[in-house]
Write a structure and sequence with these properties.
Length: about 210
């Protein structure tokens, strides 16, 4: 259920005999309130975004205006990732949003990243926040490695989950007993595909 963001506005300020310092503090409070009121009024038609922005602002220690700006970039970032995966699959290694220490939309490529991404973001909302990094494996290669690794451990009779960590540029295989997996691979004279890391976890996902 979408809840409207309620702003608490101080109706009146007590006057004191002090001069400049109190006036400056009051001016700062009024300015902050004015900025929040402007942001809320502008986004009144989308209460869910305002509510999410309020939570994000608190978690990240940024203003409501900045929180809204960042959240509004999520859809363009998602669209960019989809376009790059479809059109630049031979070099695209993944996209993710970095929140700290600076907010960035990070895109990784195995080569020519700056030249590749430029036509997709030039003149758009992501132009000033995109950061290009280099990776050794494409997202397609990671997906293929993930599938092969999962098929291999299943053939060995070992339960496992799997995923892709685009920031670390690797596929991950999640098992509850790493030693058991390594022993099974050794007995079968088999090895996991390149770019696959084994991660030991306490439990696996249960089928719904």
């Amino acid at each position: 259920m979408r809840l409207a963001l309620l702003l608490l506005v101080v109706a009146s300020l007590a006057t004191t005999a002090c001069g400049g310092e109190d006036d400056t503090q009051r001016s700062g409070v009024a300015s902050d309130q004015s900025n929040e009121e402007t942001t809320t009024a502008r986004l009144d038609a989308d209460d869910a975004l305002v509510q999410d922005a309020k939570t994000y602002a608190k978690d990240q220690g940024v203003s409501l205006e900045e929180a809204v700006r960042r959240l509004e970039l999520q859809d363009p970032a998602g669209d960019l990732g989809a376009d790059l995966e479809a059109n630049e699959w031979d070099t695209f290694a993944g996209l993710w949003i970095q929140h700290e220490p600076e907010h960035r939309v990070v895109v990784a490529f195995t080569r020519d990243g700056e030249e590749t991404v430029r036509p997709y973001v030039e003149g758009g909302s992501l132009e000033d926040v995109v950061e290009v990094r280099e990776a050794s494996a494409t997202l397609t290669q990671l997906q293929e490695a993930q599938e092969r690794a999962h098929d291999l451990v299943r053939s060995l009779g070992i339960r496992a989950d799997s995923g892709i960590d685009v920031e670390r540029n690797r596929a991950e295989l999640y098992v509850t007993n790493r030693a058991q997996l390594e022993s099974a691979l050794q007995q079968a004279n088999a090895r996991l595909p390149e770019h696959v890391a084994v991660v030991e976890v306490e439990g696996l996902a249960e089928p719904a």
